[in-house]
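Page 37, top half.
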Amino acid sequence: MLKSLFMLSMLVITTAPAAAGEAADAVKFFYDNLGDETLPENRNRFTGPALDFLNSADAAWERDETVCIDFGFAVDAQDFDDVEIAKTLTLDETVNGDTADVTASFENFGQATQVEWSLKKSAGGWKVSDIGSAVNDWRLSAMSCE
């Protein structure tokens, strides 16, 4: 009986979903607030190339209403089903010292989607330094806005 109980508890432990860490929590904010990744009040959640791109996109808009961002980075699309994304979202976190990679996987209108988030740890916590999609071949760090 004890052996069966032990085996059952080991099965539960090994099949339970992994708890998200602090870097994944920083990314989850954007899935809890879909569409808010470009809002100025969220700039303190970014650093490096991601922050540079968002600031240059703002400057281009203010200068001559140039649109540099025409899709939602968090969903890798122009439109999204927030209910479906919330139901299917998983975050896979890999931390290496003061850097982390978080892969967000979810379904959006029935299509499997993955968005790759790169983060850096600072005194203020984990901040997004880059975002990208291998499927649609884009990264914020490779984009320019003039």
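Page 37, bottom half:
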Amino acid sequence: MTAQELHQIIAAGMRCVHLEVDGDGRHWQALVVSPEFEGMRAIKRHQRVYATLGPRIHNDEVHALSMKTFTPAEWAEAQRSA
């Protein structure tokens, strides 16, 4: 799997206003900004992203995925603070 393929899978499974994916083919990092995260705790946000991957997580096609998840408002604030 490539970063582009993983990006497309996540983007097809949920509404993202910003999405970055990077990794080495087995270990991935994702930055996901989505209005779907409104009112969700971090664990629920991560579960939502994992849900887009379906069996790819269970069959080890995506071995590890670390995430940073933001609502659009949180992301805007993070950009102002940077």
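Margin note: The first helix runs from residue 3 to 13.
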